[in-house]
């Protein structure tokens, strides 16, 4: 048996095949049947189907030695029957035979398609969460489509890893959309889908939480689920280790701490939250999700600047590291309280040592005061205090002497890009579009100044860049403030708030970070923004057996007016009343008035038919008809008479030859030559060629030329 070097070299150039254990298993049918001529490839197809049905790789006969030129191609030619073992049951058939078509066919086992075989090591990820999207042109079709997909997925559970790929990448996404997050372990139900109607070119903006959204082991799920997140944290740790005064702790270890977590301490909370946000931004970028604008709350501006493309991730983590390191040097803590009053309403209560730190929304401000002296915050009526606690506030008097050190520590560490997406500053409330504005002086102001988050978001809404607002952080801490801001603007349809992660101690499938992220992507996609679903779910196989689109036939799109309806053909009306009857017969036809046609306008004509009765209970086959016209003022009867279906005499039958078109042999072979099929004189044996153009048939006689004897 010979194995062609060219074909084998093609296989060898495929990287995934060249490193596969036991190599590529290769076989042929030529040793069994020889050349198949015009049926070339059919025998290989039959052999492949039998092999898949019996889950056995058949041996090859008459193999002596392999061509030495392909010994390094990692090929296996079985000489005994083999089991597929850990391979997917899939066969590729090459067809390059003379007289046949040059083609390649890939066959999959029916058992694999129906999910009745064990997972191979190449499909270990099928149990992971998948984002399943469906769409339709209207709400009724969407409901039907969801039911179709659920029925099909539950009937063929082995295809649940391929259905998201097919619907997400190989189907058009229509205006009415729905999504769900599922896995092969969970039966698909229509109640799992969230539905929405897409917006026209919605603007998606990112909003970043500041301190206060952190919680113990908030990065554990991300580190365990996503290897790329591990890589992000390694790069950030490397950036911190390169400093002159690096931390003695590891980002990955601190993100996974539980009972002994230190995320609430000033040294850790800001860099850990920023690291989570940088990882989420990288996730979203790899999935094709990019912001039209960004806004950050207090320290959240660091990750916002990175998401906008103004600074590098290395600069971002260094910016987040130094405030906590410097804050560790101060001796006291500060008391804080969220007050349910506007900044104007709370001002009369402020005394020395009490500052407005944040304007979170129009109705809530955050106050800070140094501990150790008489508490002035308690002078505010208790009915206005929402929450109380302690923390670090860089704008306080105790931290004042550290601010110059923070600005100086950033020198040489800020890597600015040449352009960026718009960023609404919670320091100035203005829109920043030049990365050079975000130098060390700006980040010192970020520490010193009150957080004008409410004003920054309000300006974002005025710029019309926030139809969808994605909250990026370890917890949806900005949900309440943002909804208050939306209500203050009296928006008829406020932006859709979408969290990326939520704090949850539950270990169920729905509470996992993977499901939360995919749910956020589902909301983004179903509301019309761009998501690269190929990157989200990965590549899969195209499922060709999905039910067709459920068209809705209840709505009639042909609105026929009375004027149009009157122009219907009477012959067609008679044919529909008397199917199978050709023609019609008229009698007693009387033309009473001429039909006057005005060139400047239109003429309305009505034709009415009424059955002619034999008696009180039976009608004849004849109909009385009246044709009338309307000139804009009055109706005028034009013609009347009687008509019935069927001609009075049988129509003349004209016999048309079966093969009516004659073609000369010369023109026939010239046409074939133009198509690339050139026949020499010895092969031009077709004579008396004729064709039936409407029937798609042709006939010819063959002139058998005496074969030349071989010598």
TrEMBL record:
<keyword id="KW-0596">Phosphopantetheine</keyword>
<keyword id="KW-0597">Phosphoprotein</keyword>
<dbReference type="InterPro" id="IPR020841">
    <property type="entry name" value="PKS_Beta-ketoAc_synthase_dom"/>
</dbReference>
<dbReference type="InterPro" id="IPR020807">
    <property type="entry name" value="PKS_DH"/>
</dbReference>
<dbReference type="InterPro" id="IPR049551">
    <property type="entry name" value="PKS_DH_C"/>
</dbReference>
<dbReference type="Pfam" id="PF14765">
    <property type="entry name" value="PS-DH"/>
</dbReference>
<dbReference type="GO" id="GO:0008168">
    <property type="term" value="F:methyltransferase activity"/>
</dbReference>
<dbReference type="InterPro" id="IPR050091">
    <property type="entry name" value="PKS_NRPS_Biosynth_Enz"/>
</dbReference>
<dbReference type="GO" id="GO:0032259">
    <property type="term" value="P:methylation"/>
</dbReference>
<dbReference type="InterPro" id="IPR032821">
    <property type="entry name" value="PKS_assoc"/>
</dbReference>
<dbReference type="GO" id="GO:0044550">
    <property type="term" value="P:secondary metabolite biosynthetic process"/>
</dbReference>
<dbReference type="Pfam" id="PF00698">
    <property type="entry name" value="Acyl_transf_1"/>
</dbReference>
<dbReference type="InterPro" id="IPR016035">
    <property type="entry name" value="Acyl_Trfase/lysoPLipase"/>
</dbReference>
<keyword id="KW-0808">Transferase</keyword>
<keyword id="KW-0489">Methyltransferase</keyword>
<dbReference type="GO" id="GO:0004312">
    <property type="term" value="F:fatty acid synthase activity"/>
</dbReference>
<dbReference type="InterPro" id="IPR049900">
    <property type="entry name" value="PKS_mFAS_DH"/>
</dbReference>
<dbReference type="InterPro" id="IPR042104">
    <property type="entry name" value="PKS_dehydratase_sf"/>
</dbReference>
<dbReference type="InterPro" id="IPR014031">
    <property type="entry name" value="Ketoacyl_synth_C"/>
</dbReference>
<dbReference type="InterPro" id="IPR001227">
    <property type="entry name" value="Ac_transferase_dom_sf"/>
</dbReference>
<dbReference type="Pfam" id="PF16197">
    <property type="entry name" value="KAsynt_C_assoc"/>
</dbReference>
<dbReference type="InterPro" id="IPR016039">
    <property type="entry name" value="Thiolase-like"/>
</dbReference>
<feature type="region of interest" description="N-terminal hotdog fold">
    <location>
        <begin position="518"/>
        <end position="650"/>
    </location>
</feature>
<feature type="domain" description="PKS/mFAS DH">
    <location>
        <begin position="518"/>
        <end position="711"/>
    </location>
</feature>
<dbReference type="GO" id="GO:0006633">
    <property type="term" value="P:fatty acid biosynthetic process"/>
</dbReference>
<feature type="region of interest" description="C-terminal hotdog fold">
    <location>
        <begin position="660"/>
        <end position="711"/>
    </location>
</feature>
<keyword id="KW-0511">Multifunctional enzyme</keyword>
<feature type="domain" description="Ketosynthase family 3 (KS3)">
    <location>
        <begin position="1"/>
        <end position="109"/>
    </location>
</feature>
<dbReference type="Pfam" id="PF02801">
    <property type="entry name" value="Ketoacyl-synt_C"/>
</dbReference>
<dbReference type="InterPro" id="IPR014043">
    <property type="entry name" value="Acyl_transferase_dom"/>
</dbReference>
<protein>
    <submittedName>
        <fullName>FabD/lysophospholipase-like protein</fullName>
    </submittedName>
</protein>
């Amino acid at each position: 048996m010979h194995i062609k070097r060219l074909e084998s070299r093609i296989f060898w150039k495929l990287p995934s095949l060249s490193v596969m254990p036991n190599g590529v298993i290769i076989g042929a049918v030529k040793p069994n049947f020889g050349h198949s001529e015009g049926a070339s490839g059919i025998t290989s197809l039959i052999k492949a189907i039998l092999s898949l049905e019996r889950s056995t790789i058949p041996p090859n006969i008459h193999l002596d030695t392999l061509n030495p030129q392909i010994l390094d191609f990692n090929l296996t030619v079985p000489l005994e029957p083999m089991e597929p073992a850990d391979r997917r049951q899939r066969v590729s058939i090459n067809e390059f035979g003379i007289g046949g078509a040059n083609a390649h066919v890939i066959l999959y086992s029916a058992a694999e398609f129906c999910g009745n075989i064990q997972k191979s090591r190449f499909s270990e990820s099928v149990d992971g969460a998948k984002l399943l999207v469906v769409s339709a042109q209207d709400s009724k079709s969407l409901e039907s489509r969801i039911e179709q997909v659920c029925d099909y997925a539950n009937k063929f559970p082995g295809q649940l890893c391929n259905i998201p790929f097919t619907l997400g990448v190989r189907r058009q996404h229509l205006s009415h959309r729905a999504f769900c997050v599922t896995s092969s372990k969970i039966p698909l139900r229509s109640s799992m889908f969230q539905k929405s109607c897409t917006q026209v070119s919605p603007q998606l903006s990112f909003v970043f939480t500041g301190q206060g959204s952190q919680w113990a082991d908030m990065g554990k799920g991300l580190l365990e689920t996503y290897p790329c997140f591990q890589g992000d944290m390694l790069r950030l740790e490397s950036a911190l280790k390169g400093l002159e005064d690096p931390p003695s702790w590891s980002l990955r270890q601190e993100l996974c701490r539980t009972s002994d977590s230190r995320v609430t301490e000033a040294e850790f909370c800001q860099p850990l939250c920023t690291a989570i946000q940088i990882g989420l931004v990288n996730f979203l970028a790899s999935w094709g999700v990019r912001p039209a604008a960004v806004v950050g709350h207090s320290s959240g501006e660091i990750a916002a600047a990175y998401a906008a493309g103004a600074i590098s991730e290395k600069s971002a983590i260094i910016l987040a590291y130094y405030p906590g390191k410097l804050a560790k040097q101060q001796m006291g803590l500060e008391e804080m309280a969220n007050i349910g009053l506007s900044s104007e309403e709370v001002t009369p209560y402020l005394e020395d040592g009490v500052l407005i730190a944040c304007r979170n929304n129009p109705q809530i401000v955050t106050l800070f005061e140094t501990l150790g002296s008489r508490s002035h915050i308690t002078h505010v009526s208790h009915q206005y205090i929402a929450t109380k606690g302690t923390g670090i506030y860089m704008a306080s008097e105790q931290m004042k002497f550290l601010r110059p050190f923070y600005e100086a520590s950033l020198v040489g560490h800020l890597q600015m890009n040449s352009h960026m997406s718009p960023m609404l500053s919670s320091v100035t409330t203005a829109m920043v579009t030049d990365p050079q504005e975000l130098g060390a002086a700006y980040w010192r102001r970020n520490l010193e100044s009150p957080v004008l988050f409410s004003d920054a978001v309000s300006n974002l809404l005025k710029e019309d860049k926030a139809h969808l607002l994605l909250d990026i952080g370890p917890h949806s801490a900005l949900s309440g403030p943002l909804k208050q801001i939306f209500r203050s603007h009296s928006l008829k349809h406020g932006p859709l708030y979408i969290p990326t992660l939520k704090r949850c101690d539950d270990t169920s499938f729905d509470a996992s970070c993977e499901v939360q992220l995919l749910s956020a992507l589902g909301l983004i996609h179903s509301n019309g923004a761009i998501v690269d679903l190929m990157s989200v779910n990965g590549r899969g196989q195209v499922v060709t057996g999905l039910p067709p689109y459920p068209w809705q036939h209840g709505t009639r799109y042909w609105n026929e007016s009375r004027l149009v309806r009157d122009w219907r053909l009477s012959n067609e009306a008679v044919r529909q009343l008397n199917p199978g009857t050709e023609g019609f017969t008229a009698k007693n036809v009387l033309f009473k008035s001429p039909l006057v046609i005005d060139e400047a306008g239109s003429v309305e004509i009505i034709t009415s038919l009424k059955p002619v009765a034999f008696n009180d209970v039976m009608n004849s086959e004849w109909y009385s008809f009246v044709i009338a016209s309307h000139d804009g003022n009055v109706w005028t009867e034009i013609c009347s008479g009687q008509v019935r279906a069927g001609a009075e005499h049988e129509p003349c039958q004209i016999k048309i030859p079966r093969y009516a078109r004659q073609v000369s042999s010369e023109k026939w072979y010239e046409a074939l030559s133009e198509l690339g099929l050139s026949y020499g004189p010895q092969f031009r044996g077709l004579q008396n060629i004729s064709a039936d153009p409407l029937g798609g048939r042709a006939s010819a006689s063959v002139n058998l030329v005496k074969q030349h004897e071989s010598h």
